[in-house]
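Narrative of activities, Objective 1.

The group set out to show that a structural description can be obtained from nothing but a protein's sequence at a throughput compatible with the screening campaign. Below is one input-output pair from the validation batch, recorded exactly as produced.
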Amino acid sequence: MLDGNQAAMFQARQAGALPGELKIEWADVSNGHASGGFTVEKIHMAPNGFMHAASVVALTDTACGYGCVASLPEGASGFTTIEIKANYLGTAKVGERVTCEARLLHGGRMTQVWDAEAVNVTTGKVIAAFRCTQMVLYPR
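Output recorded for this entry:
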């Protein structure tokens, strides 16, 4: 388990990887919680003019993953995602801000369950509800 807000560390680590390429910014990554977001650009859009569902999953899944790392039990070496589910309730347009709040629901020795919501800040509407289960890994 990491102490305090580790957002800057996770921000630096994602350079050159998908979260960095999608310009996701982190406000908080700490034990049991993660929050961040992005301003919608063309890279977040599907060809049909709506925000791509994968952009929302990238945000919510990354928030849960970073939160999971910050919340690993003593002796754990990492995690792997074993299940995700997303319910889409809305979208966002280019120029609008999308944020995410992720919270730990269950923090066991072998699994973690996380919930996250993505919100279109411009409209104030929830655009996705996300849940994932992480399997905690230990050195062999």
